[in-house]
Write a sequence for this structure.
C-alpha cells in the first residue's frame, strides 16, 4: 500500500504561548516545536500497515523552513520519503486553504491511503482530513483507533462519544483521521536518524501549487483568555498551601 | 429567503440538549442579524424530529427523509445537507460540535468553498465568533468573509437552551436525491467496548490526573490522595492513551462527563476536551506548575507548584484534618 501521512509541526506542549506584540499571531521566536501528537499516531499506524502489508510511507507537511526538523523526525521513525510544502503564511490560510495545498501536493502520488491526526494541537480545528477527502474525491472516516486491511479495502474502528465505538467497512483509496491512543508510538533509533539523512525530501513552494490563499473565514483577533471564575491561588510552601487548601475546602467550599 | 439554519442531532439516549443549545446560539445570531431561525434534521418517516424543542420555536422546520440515511454516513449526510442548503440558501448553518458534525461538516462546507468555524463558544456583534486555540491557551475571534453560507459548530454547553414551554411550527418534508452507490462506507452497529465498571458520573469527589504526572510509577502519589479524600480516580486522555489507567477512568469529551462536589485536577493543563467533561463540578481545585495553564480559568482554588511536592503535602493535610 502506498500511504501518505499528513503531519503538522506545532508548538511543543510545554511551550509558553504568548502573543506577538501588535500582531494577531503568537510569538514564535522562542518556541520549541514538535510533531502534532495525533499526527504521530497517524504516522505510527502507517508504519505498522507498511510492516504488515508492504508498500511505501510518504509524509507531507506544510509550513515554513522550520518544519523540516519534524519531517526529518518522521523519516527517522521510518517514513520512506517526504514532501515539504513550503509556506510562510499558514496562519493566514483557513482550514480549506491549507487542505487545498496538501491535496494539490498529494494528488499526483495517487496514494491508496491518506492518514492524518484527528486535529492539531495548535488551532485544533480538526478539519484537514475531512476536507482532504472531499478535495481528493475519496471516502473517509474520522476518529479511527484501528485499521484492518480486507480483501476489498479497509475495516476501521471509529470512536464515538461517551465510550461507544463502531466498525466501518470502506473501499480504498480512502482518507482516515486517527485518534490518539490506538497504538504505542515508536521512537526514532540512532540508525533511523542516520538513514533519514539520505532519504528524499522534496520541497515544493505554495506558490508553485497555485492554490487560492483567500480565506473564507478571517481571524479578527486573539488574546489570552480571561478567567471565568476568580481563582484563589494559594501560596507559600507546599505544606502551607496544602493546609490552607484543606481548610478552605472544609469551611469555605464545604466539600470535605 | 436567507435564514439561520440550525441542524438537529439527538444523542444515543434520545437527548436533544446539544441541539437545543445550538438553537440558542441560532437565536443569539438572529438578534444580531435580524434573520429568522429555521431547523433541519434527518429522521425516519413519521418521526416528529422537532417535537422536543422547548421555548421559542423556529420559524420553520425541514424534515430530511431518505432510507439511505437510516444510519449516519458522511457521504449520505453531506449529499443530503448539500441539497437542502442549495434549496434554502441560508446565510448561516449551525451544527452542534459533535463527533458526527466533525465527521462531515468540514467536507460539506468545502463543497461550498467555505471553511467551518468550529467549536464556537460565543457570538458577538459583527457578528464575530469566538473559539479557543492552542489547547485553550488563546481565545480567538473570527468573522465570515462572505460569499456563501457561513458554517458554524457550537460548543457543547456554551449556550443555554431556552426552557420555556414548547409550541408548534410548520414542518416541510425534504427528500434528497440519493443513490446507494454514492454511500461509499458501510457503518456497523455502535457498541461499547466492555461493561463500564467505574461510574465516575455518580462520584462525589474525583481526583483527576494528567500528563504532569510524567510516569506511571508516580501514580501511587495521586492514588494516595484519592484514598485520603475518599475520591475516585479520573484521568485526562493522554494518561489512558498510554495505558497507565483504564479508558473507563477518562474524563472529557471522549470519556465520561462528571459533576462531582469536588474535582481536584493534578497535572492537567485543561485542554478543552478535558474541560467539557468536568467544568460542571461544584468545586474545582487545580495543581499545576504552569500558572498560565487553562485549568486555572475554571478552578476555584489553585496551587501553582510542583505536583510531586504539593500532592504528598496535601495527602498529609487531608489525613490530618480527618
Amino acid at each position: 500500500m502506498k500511504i501518505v501521512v499528513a503531519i503538522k509541526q506545532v508548538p511543543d506542549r510545554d511551550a509558553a504561548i504568548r502573543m506577538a506584540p501588535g500582531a494577531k499571531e503568537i510569538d514564535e521566536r522562542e518556541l520549541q516545536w514538535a510533531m502534532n501528537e495525533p499526527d504521530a499516531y497517524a504516522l505510527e499506524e502507517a508504519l505498522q500497515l507498511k510492516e504488515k502489508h508492504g508498500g511505501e510511507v510518504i509524509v507531507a507537511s506544510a509550513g515554513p523552513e522550520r518544519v523540516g526538523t519534524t519531517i526529518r523526525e518522521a523519516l527517522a521513525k521510518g517514513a520512506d520519503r517526504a514532501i515539504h510544502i513550503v509556506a510562510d503564511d499558514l496562519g493566514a490560510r483557513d482550514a480549506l486553504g491549507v487542505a487545498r495545498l496538501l491535496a494539490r501536493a498529494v494528488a499526483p502520488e495517487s496514494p491508496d491511503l491518506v492518514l492524518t491526526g484527528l486535529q492539531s494541537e495548535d488551532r485544533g480545528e480538526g478539519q484537514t482530513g475531512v476536507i482532504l477527502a472531499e478535495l481528493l474525491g475519496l471516502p473517509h472516516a474520522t476518529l479511527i483507533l484501528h485499521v484492518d486491511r480486507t480483501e476489498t479495502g479497509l475495516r476501521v474502528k471509529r470512536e464515538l462519544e461517551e465510550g461507544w465505538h463502531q466498525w466501518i467497512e470502506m473501499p480504498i483509496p480512502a482518507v482516515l483521521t486517527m485518534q490518539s491512543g490506538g497504538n504505542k508510538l515508536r521512537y526514532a533509533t540512532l540508525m533511523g536518524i542516520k538513514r533519514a539523512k539520505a532519504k528524499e525530501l522534496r520541497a515544493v513552494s505554495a506558490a508553485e501549487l497555485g492554490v487560492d490563499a483567500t480565506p473564507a473565514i478571517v481571524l479578527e483577533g486573539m488574546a489570552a483568555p480571561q478567567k471565568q471564575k476568580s481563582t484563589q491561588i494559594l501560596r507559600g510552601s507546599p505544606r502551607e498551601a496544602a493546609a490552607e487548601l484543606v481548610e478552605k475546602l472544609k469551611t469555605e467550599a464545604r466539600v470535605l | 429567503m436567507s435564514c439561520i439554519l440550525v441542524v438537529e442531532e439527538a444523542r444515543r439516549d434520545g437527548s436533544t440538549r446539544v441541539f437545543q443549545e445550538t438553537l440558542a446560539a441560532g437565536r443569539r445570531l438572529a438578534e444580531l442579524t435580524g434573520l429568522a431561525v429555521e431547523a433541519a434534521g434527518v429522521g425516519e418517516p413519521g418521526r416528529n424530529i422537532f417535537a422536543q424543542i422547548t421555548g421559542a420555536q423556529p420559524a420553520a422546520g425541514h424534515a430530511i427523509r431518505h432510507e439511505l440515511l437510516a444510519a449516519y454516513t458522511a457521504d449520505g449526510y453531506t449529499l443530503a445537507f448539500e441539497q437542502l442548503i442549495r434549496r434554502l440558501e441560508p446565510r448561516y448553518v449551525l451544527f452542534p460540535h459533535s463527533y458526527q458534525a466533525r465527521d462531515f461538516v468540514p467536507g460539506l462546507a468545502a463543497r461550498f468553498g467555505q471553511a467551518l468555524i468550529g467549536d464556537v463558544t460565543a457570538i458577538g456583534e459583527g457578528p464575530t465568533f469566538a473559539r479557543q486555540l492552542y489547547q485553550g491557551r488563546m481565545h480567538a475571534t473570527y468573522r465570515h468573509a462572505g460569499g456563501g453560507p457561513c458554517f458554524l459548530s457550537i460548543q457543547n454547553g456554551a449556550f443555554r437552551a431556552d426552557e420555556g414551554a414548547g409550541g408548534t411550527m410548520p414542518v416541510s418534508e425534504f427528500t434528497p436525491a440519493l443513490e446507494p452507490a454514492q454511500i461509499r462506507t458501510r457503518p456497523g452497529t455502535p457498541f461499547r467496548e466492555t461493561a463500564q465498571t467505574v461510574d465516575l458520573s455518580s462520584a462525589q469527589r474525583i481526583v483527576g490526573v494528567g500528563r504532569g504526572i510524567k510516569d506511571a510509577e508516580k501514580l501511587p502519589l495521586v492514588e494516595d490522595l484519592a484514598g485520603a479524600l475518599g475520591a475516585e480516580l479520573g484521568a485526562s486522555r493522554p494518561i489512558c492513551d498510554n495505558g497507565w489507567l483504564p479508558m473507563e477512568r477518562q474524563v472529557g469529551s471522549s470519556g465520561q462527563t462528571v459533576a462531582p462536589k469536588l474535582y481536584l485536577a493534578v497535572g492537567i493543563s485543561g485542554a478543552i476536551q478535558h474541560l467539557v467533561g468536568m467544568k460542571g463540578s461544584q468545586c474545582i481545585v487545580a495543581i499545576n506548575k504552569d500558572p498560565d495553564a487553562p485549568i486555572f480559568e475554571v478552578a476555584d482554588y489553585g496551587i501553582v507548584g510542583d505536583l510531586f511536592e504539593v500532592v504528598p503535602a496535601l495527602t498529609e493535610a487531608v489525613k490530618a484534618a480527618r
